[in-house]
Amino acid sequence: MKKKKIKRIIIVILILLVLAVGGYFTYFLSSYQRIPNNEYLETQITGAYSYFDDNKVVNTGDYYNIITYNIGYGANTNDYSFFMDGGKYSRAKSEDGLLANLCAITDVIYNSGASFFLLQEVDLDGTRTFNVNEREVLNDLIKGFYFNEAVCYDSPYIFYPIFDPIGKNKSAMLTYSTSRIAEGMRVSLPVSEGFNKYMDYDRCYTVSKIPTANEKMLVLYNVHLSAYSDVSVRDAQLDMLFRDMESNYKMGNYVICGGDFNMNLRDEELETDLTWCQRFPREKLPKGFEMGIDYGTDFSISHNSCRNTNEPYNEDTTFTVTTDGFIVSDNVMVHYYNNMNCHYEFSDHDPVLLQIYLKE
To answer: Which residues pair with 78 in a beta bridge?
Structure first.
């Protein structure tokens, strides 16, 4: 009798376990839905409204700095490794460390003297970042800017890794400008139809239109393309992005596209199986567009903008590649281009700085 009772208990436990696992996967799969496409973005402001001049425009002939920075949700310091790349961690190490790192990231941005910031991987609410609203932290420090935001990742609770799950997370891309953003839009990109879509970001780009003194628009694209999808998905994403950029260029507007392309922006093939650092197909660029990195000097672009997070950063052993940067239309003059070397102290990406002026 005792053996039968133990057997029944084991069977009940197994049934409950199967039901729990099945229930979780039903919840996980049924929770997936894409973020709405062609979503208009509200222009918001940081700091007191008295700081702002709604009539301020971008002047032709004046120099402007633009920075793109994937901040790695504030957790990817140089001693951090990420489980999806074969590393150790799935969450920020501590809330205090996260907040201190966000302050350091803001210092880097401010010290660049940039009039425009393109930021990726800014968590709004996440298990991996102690539910800190990173946009609010940044905006408490960044004063006197217009900005918009687009959600690009809003996942159900991911119960992996088992002993330290990455959990439920919501992340955004933010665009900041010292001149008024007259119009903003979030555009959904094609994504993989396989299981990767549940783990990867809901890829998109944003379009921010800023008036210029000659009654055109400076059109800023903020992008974060797929990291783990196959070539056909990345090609479809670029085709959509390029058509949109070309359309704005043909209207006579100035077009600058910046962000994390998850491809090698240098004109070279790398000997690696990593899907997020294959060569960027620059030969597919629409007529009238150029790679910003081609304006850099050997010194200013010698540093790579992104590191592999399979291990804490080691200058001698860590694989690095330039995935972050800019594409510009030929009515934009690039005066200076710099892959900023922060030694990956605050993120697994380092920022890229572009200095331009708009041609008449």
So the answer is: none
